[in-house]
Each structure stands twice: as C-alpha cells, then as structure tokens.
From TrEMBL:
It is found in: Cell membrane. The chain crosses the membrane at residues 20-41, 86-110, 130-155, 162-182, 202-221, 260-278, 290-307, 319-340, 418-435, 447-467. The keyword GTP-binding does not apply. It is a multi-pass membrane protein. InterPro entries: C4_dicarb_anaerob_car-like (IPR018385), DASS-Related_Transporters (IPR051679). GO terms for cellular component: plasma membrane. This is Uncharacterized membrane protein YfcC, ion transporter superfamily. It comes from the Bacteria. Keywords: Cell membrane, Membrane, Transmembrane, Transmembrane helix. It comes from Cetobacterium ceti.
Length: 470
C-alpha cells in the first residue's frame, strides 16, 4: 500500500493524509503572518564568519506584510523549486537502488550477513548507529540518505522492519550532527559568533554524543526485539507485508561473482560519495549525479540491457514520488514565515521569555527555544546567524557561559529535525523508506520526548559546571 494512504474503516476516525497535515501547517503559518506583528533586526556582516548577523539590541517592529491565502499554491510551487535538489536526489536514489535491488545483490549479501551474525543480530544496530554518528560529527546527515535502503534490507533480513533500518542510519547520524562535536556548519559558526576557540569544549560534546547514542540504541533495540517476536506489532506492518514480497523473493539467492562485482561497484561509489562530501564539498547535485552513474555501471556489469536499467530506474523513482514531493511542499512553510517578516519577532519574544526564567532552567529553556526556532529557520548556519546574536547577550546577562549557549543551539537545531515535517533530512529518509510521516511520529514520538529530557539535563549540567572556557 502506498505511503500516506489508508483503507477506509467504517466507524473509525482515520488519521489525515500526510499532504493534508502539511497543508494545514501551511495554512497555520499563513494565519500567523496576520496575527504576529512583523519585526526586524538590522543585519551586519560578521568578519569572523562572513555571515550576516543581527544586531541584538536594535529590534524594531515594521509594517505588517501578511501573506495572502490565495498565494498558498504559489508558495508551494516556490517551495518545490527551492527544494528541487533534494527532491531530485530522492527520486534518483530510489531509481538507482531499485536497479541494484533487482540484481539481488543486497538480498544475497544480507542473507550471508544474517547467517554470520546468527543470534547476534542486535550488535548490528549499535554498530550502524555508532558509525553514522561518528561520520556526522563533521558533516550533514543528508549525505547519507542513500545508505538507508541498504540498512532497511539488512534490518528486514534480520526480522526487523523498515523503521529499524532507517533508524540505524538516520538516528545515528542525528546524534552525531546534533551534538556537534566537530561540526563546522553549526558548532563552528556558533562558536565563531560567540568568540570561542574553534571546536573548544569538544570533550563534553563527545560525552553528550555517547549519552544520546546509548539512550537511542536502547530505544531502537527495544522496538526491534518487540516486532521480531510479534511482527504484527510493527508500526509499518502493512508496508512490510508488501515490501517483503519483493525483497524476500530473492532471499535465498547464492552470492555469485556477478553479485560480488555489483557490491564492489556500490562500495566504490559510496566511498567516492563520502570522500567527495568531506574533501571536495560536494552538494546534493553531485551526489545525485553519482547515483545515476552507479545505477548505469552496476546494471551493465550485472548484465542488464540499457532498456531494463531504464525501466527499473523509473519504477524505483515512481515509488518515491509521494515522499519526495512532501519535501518541497513543506518548504512553503518557511517561505511564508519569511515573507511575513515574523521570524525576527519570534526570536525577539523568545529571547525575552528566556531572560525571565529561573537561572537553573535557563539552559534547558534556551535548548527548547532553539527547538522552536528550528521549525522556522531550517538552516543550521542560518539559525546560528539569526539566534546567536540574541542568545549570547541573554546568556551574558543571566550568567550562562557562551559555550553552554552554543550547546543549547546544537541540540535545538539538530534534534528537532527528526520530528519536523519541514526537515529535508527527515522527509528524505522517509521518502526513501516509503514510510508515512504519521507512522514515523507514532514511532519517534516517545524517543523524541526522551531526547528532550536527556538534552535538557545535559544543558543544565553544562550550565551548572560553568562549561567553558567562557
């Protein structure tokens, strides 16, 4: 059954379609531009970072610029245009992996891995999450969206579901990115704005990474054990029934020389993908092009005709169209809030609210405030440029170290990306896995609450110990 669709059940209230949820959020954002006063902070260029930052003590209300509700469809089209790179990445990755899956290589390899780890399957989950957490200490999680299909097939072979497979990559990467140990895009920018030595305080951030990794693995493994024992308890049971028919049809395949050749090609392209992202600063367009080449080369080496490669590529891309479009549609929310000039107003009010909180709770309050702002400003470096000039004076005023303010920003900017429908990383992973947003939230809701508590405690501890150097 396609993601986002449900059978009609008489007498039972059905959860709204994912597109309906996103559209309602767009309508709410539009309404807020009529309710919240427009405001503006002057911007100046920060010499240390080259970023345009706000002047914290010069906020002023300006003439309201509410968004016309009749323009909502136009804003959606604008969102699709501005999200085109990741929308096309999702479609291309889906097409490329469908070609690879049709060779049977992943299925045969997963069978061998499962036999090798017989009765030790649970070790694979923390191994995957740790690898991707370490990888995302210095780069964005978007880089690894293409790894999700591999993890999903492996998870299903071990008796788990797509949620477990996605979690091994996405949530591991989320921890690495959100704790910001050596992240130049978030920690680096925020620390430069704060006047802190680059990547100072890394030991405590790494400690936070370990804590988050432990609680996240406990949650994933607990869910994995439950659904392996009772597959009908899987949140995506309907998806598993349809997808396993495709993937398990080749589950007993022999791992042939052709499969080895395809595996070498896939590993080679993934190595190039990671190296290109880390050293050549590849963006989404370069990654998309690489997946096209991977599909062509692997398909030809396996023996597929050009027409077969093209047909399977289109079939794979078609299956992910639903999720890919969500990314662009959700982008309309941030466009509307920006056009309504209410983002600066939100930062101004939240900063005043933080200053009024009891001192012991101010670190946690700043973390929660950054969570809220991340729903409005989806760029990590952009959020740092807008919020840190406000948060740093507030931190100085209430006696909070600037390093703690940076930590609160890291947590707030990163963790909420895994519950916000405006997050390109989250929606990209869900599109690849063909998992609807509402089912993801049914799975992720409890873990996100655990993350909120864990993050709040860690920020409170940082504030209490004078996490510095200042």
């Amino acid at each position: 059954m396609a993601s986002g669709q449900k059978k009609e059940t008489k007498g039972k209230l059905n959860f709204p379609h994912t597109y309906v949820i996103i559209f309602l959020l767009i309508v709410i954002a539009t309404a807020l531009t009529w309710i919240i006063p427009a405001g503006h902070f002057p911007r100046v260029k920060d010499l240390a970072t080259g970023k345009s930052v706000i002047v914290a003590d010069q906020f002023a209300f300006i003439k309201n610029t509410p968004v016309n509700p009749l323009d909502i469809p136009l804003k959606i089209v604008d969102g699709l245009n501005k999200s085109s790179s990741i929308v096309f990445l999702i479609l291309i990755v889906g097409g490329a992996f469908h070609v690879i899956i049709k060779t049977g290589m992943f299925q045969a390899l997963a069978g061998k891995v499962t036999k090798a780890f017989s009765h030790k399957e649970e070790l694979i989950i923390p191994a995957f999450t740790t690898i991707f957490a370490l990888a995302c200490m210095s780069m964005g999680v978007n880089t690894f969206i293409g790894f999700a299909p591999v993890a999903i097939i492996l998870a299903r072979t071990m008796g788990y579901d797509a949620l477990v497979g996605v979690s091994m990559v996405a949530l591991g990467g989320a921890i690495g990115f959100s704790t910001g140990t050596f992240n130049p895009f978030t920690t680096g920018v925020a620390q430069a704005l704060a006047g802190l030595p680059m990547f100072s305080g890394a030991s405590y951030r790494f400690f936070c990474l370990v804590v988050f990794l432990i609680v996240t693995n406990i949650y994933i493994i607990s869910y994995a054990k439950k659904i392996k024992k009772n597959p009908e308890l899987s949140i995506v049971a309907d998806l598993e029934k349809s997808e396993n028919d495709l993937e398990n049809s080749n589950s007993d395949l022999e791992f042939t020389k052709k499969h080895i050749a395809v595996l070498i090609i896939v590993l080679g392209f993934f190595t190039l993908l990671v190296y290109g992202g880390a050293n050549w600063h590849w963006k989404l367009n370069q990654s998309s092009a690489l997946f096209i080449w991977m599909a062509i080369v692997a398909g030809l080496v396996y023996g597929f005709s050009p027409s077969t490669i093209a047909k399977e590529f289109v079939n794979g891309a078609k299956a992910l169209l639903f999720g890919a479009l969500i990314i662009g549609i959700a982008r309309a929310i941030s466009i509307i809030l920006g056009d309504g000039n209410i983002l600066d107003t939100a930062v101004y009010y939240l900063g005043n609210w933080l200053a009024s909180m009891p001192r012991i709770l101010q670190g946690a309050g700043m973390f929660l405030m950054q969570l809220v702002i991340n729903g409005l400003i989806t760029s990590g470096s952009g959020q740092a440029a807008v919020t840190m000039p406000v948060m740093l004076p507030v931190a100085d005023m209430v006696g909070m170290t600037r390093q703690t303010a940076v930590l609160a920003f890291n947590f707030g900017d990163g963790l909420s990306n895994y519950v916000l429908p405006t997050s390109s990383a989250l929606m990209g992973f869900l599109a690849i896995a063909n998992i609807s947003y509402e089912k993801w939230m049914k799975y992720m809701g409890k873990l996100f609450l655990i993350w909120l508590i864990t993050g709040s405690v860690l920020v409170i501890i940082a504030n209490s110990i004078g996490y510095g150097p200042f």
